[in-house]
Amino acid sequence: MNAWKWVPNALTLGNLLGGVVVCWAAASGSFLGEALVADWTDAIALGMQESWPGGVEARGVQMVAVVWALAMFCDVLDGWVARKLDVAGPMGVELDSLADVVTGGVAPAMVAMRLFQGEGDAGLTWQMVACLGVAAAAAYRLARFNVAAEKGKGGPFFEGLPAPAAGVFWLGMMLTWGELRGGANESMSTSLAWIGLVVVPLAMASRRKMWGLKGWGLNPRVDQIRSVMVPIVVGVGIGTWFGCESAFLAVPLCLLLYLMLAMATTPQSQSH
Question: What distances in angstroms separate CA 253 from CA 37, 43, 62, 80, 249, one per listed residue?
Fold first, then answer.
């Protein structure tokens, strides 16, 4: 029995459980809030007994963001580890998709609902429907991916935006909200959240193929396109990080920019 085969599955379960923690934190209404972080984070932060910048709420957001980021790192790592250990198999594919439904579908939907909670009751129904659309689109995208994997289809192109991208987008939005809430620029983050709430699910459900960061050397034309577009996205991210009130605006902005550029520049011959 090969004990190493459990290593990538353990990473995948780390992704799943991290997503569950994010869902629980969003459902609690305070992103972990006082119950988990009020006492001990003040004591360990830089060895000082000072309040965390932004108060308990912002502190909780930051801690949940760390958990979410670690979960997504596990998602990146599990497939690579499985291939390196030569233990990749259908069990890992199915488990990975189940974890991604939580981390890249349910968790973003619950975080989005939490962010819109303070917008009033008038638009609550539409907000809930739109947020649930994030989870539905992620589930659909992952089911389609599993079918393609069973048929042996694959390559350097994504067919629709990968489900974990929704997690990346809403991770950035959550951190932006934690920094801008109650300020003059809060409406900017709300507007960007609405754009993501519509665009990201539609992109996941789309069958439009777009280039990713894998498969360099397989298609010289696409490599040439990526060698230009990737520095543009990175440059915008760096500029936003250092030039905006909330550095974390760089995350959702870069994802939306990548989506626009990838869909616009992927050769049509690769889209069918």
Answer: 29, 35, 19, 27, 6
Query: Counting beta carbons within 10 angstroms of the beta carbon of residue 74, is it exposed (0 to 12), middle (13 to 18) or buried (19 or more)?
Result: buried
- Cβ within 8 Å of residue 227, ≥6 positions away: none
Residue 136 scores a pLDDT above 50: yes
d(CA 262, CA 253): 14
| pLDDT digits 0-9 by tens, 63-119 | 888 899 999 999 999 888 888 888 877 888 889 999 999 999 999 998 888 877 755
Rounded-to-10 torsion of CA 45, 48, 53, 58: 40
Q: What distance in Å separates the CA atoms of residue 31 and residue 21, rounded to the nearest whole number?
A: 10
**pLDDT category, 155, cuts 50, 70, 90?**
low
3-state secondary structure of 209: strand
Backbone angles phi, psi at 133, to 5 degrees: -60, -30
Which backbone phi and psi does 271 adopt, to 5 degrees? -105, 5
Q: What is the residue whose two structure tokens read 């991210």?
A: 237
What is the pTM assigned to this prediction? 0.81
CATH topology for the 3-210 domain: Four Helix Bundle (Hemerythrin (Met), subunit A) (1.20.120)
